Amino acid sequence: MQKLSVRGNNLMINVQVAPRRSPRMKVAGVLAPEAGWRWCLLGLALLVPAATGACELPTHWRGGWFQSGVREVISITRTEFSSKGICTQSSGEKFLFKERSDGCFRCVVISEKHPNVLQYKETLCEPSKDLSALCAQITGDALLYSMFRRDAPPDPCPFKGPLTFSYMGSHGQCSTPASTIDSCTSDSRLLFKYQACPDVQGTESSEVKVECIGHWKEGSTRYFVGRLEGRRAVTDEDRYRCFAWERVRNDKDSLDFRMAQSGDATCNGVFSAYDGAKNLHGSYSGCEFPSWVATHRRWHALDKGVSYSVAHHNTTLRLHHSHATRNQPMPLGLTQEDEDVEEPERSRVSPSGPEERLVCSQQLEATSSRVMVVTHVTTGCTSGFMCTVFYRRDGHIIEMQQGSRTFRAVDACSPEHFNASTAPHTTLTSKPGVTLPGGGMISDEAIYPVTH
């Protein structure tokens, strides 16, 4: 008689297998055909986790987490939530954990808002191990805990600047001068610029960089979690903040936004975009570039030093500094929509400078061949306003003039910052090999006169 064992945690199942001359074997006192003993053994092995009450937590939850008020890093493994115990049973978002110390049980309802953000509610630890009965004790107003993944990779922010806003200070609404939210060239970073209002006590000028790590939506309200960077963000308790925001349409052409920020490293108290430790009320401002600019997705400067790509529904131009060589793929960091545009020849681009972004902020003048706009220019997280004039020369050729950068949009096209007579012209072409109106041709290598 051969004896085999299947061991799982504290449970061991013994299987006795009869010699080959016997047509039957005995499994835990039950006779079965010898041919099926291997399947029977496998089935018993699969029952071991259920018999011991073990359950597994989602693979992508595993790792280290931060929770406000908890000094040590919270660790989630295959079967254990370090501050709650070992998982013994689960049903959907409901998990039953057994504490190692006194053997009591608690229900924890865990909601994944984003791979980097978990929220949960829990019961007290009790002798009962009935998952349904324990979880039924959790009420709608039970305390909600938020956990943020340590060393979480950045996540694209759910909206883009530039936006202007007013905010509620400790002694009133700070509206003038307007504060701003700018997008950095990295999609996962925002720059909040708070202005001090002379007539509102307690307001001060400050800049806060926010790196987004996760966003989600509940009803009409959208949320995101950010890591703050600034002189006051020293510890994780200072660094993590939760934001609720929503768009508000006032009329056909006007779109505002509301935003609330938590006062600590939780999402507690931020139940809507109108109710937080810090409340912002702002508006979107912007315009579109001329339609003949958006006719082509890419424009190349004649010296091949820079390229421009049109993005975000003709509201944004991305400037790319580059070195170019012929007949190679050009990874400009464009959207898939941009990549789908066919071009007979592309150039390999190796970045040699910081990427810049020009967003159409306000249109001042427009004719069929000339348009003057105020653009919001961002390099990294540094931004300002610039007067930009576009001239349509041909279907594949445009020219552009730009002024100096200013802090205020209203100053951008003033004579002090823009002079059309002296500002240099930048000639852009949508593709090589096009003929210039004056009788020249643009090739991959140079501009040369056309001989007749």
UniProtKB/TrEMBL annotation:
InterPro entries per UniProt: DUF7042, DUF7043, DUF7044
Pfam families according to UniProt: DUF7042, DUF7043, DUF7044
| Stretches that traverse the bilayer | none
Q: Which residues form a coiled coil?
A: none
Describe the location of the DUF7043 domain by residue ranges: 285-421
> GO:BP terms for this protein?
autophagosome-lysosome fusion
Domain DUF7042 stretches: 155-280
Residue spans of biased composition, Basic and acidic residues class: 344-356
Could you tell me which residue ranges the DUF7044 domain spans? Answer: 54-136
Q: Give the region (Disordered) as residue ranges.
A: 319-356
In Swiss-Prot or TrEMBL terms, this protein is called Uncharacterized protein
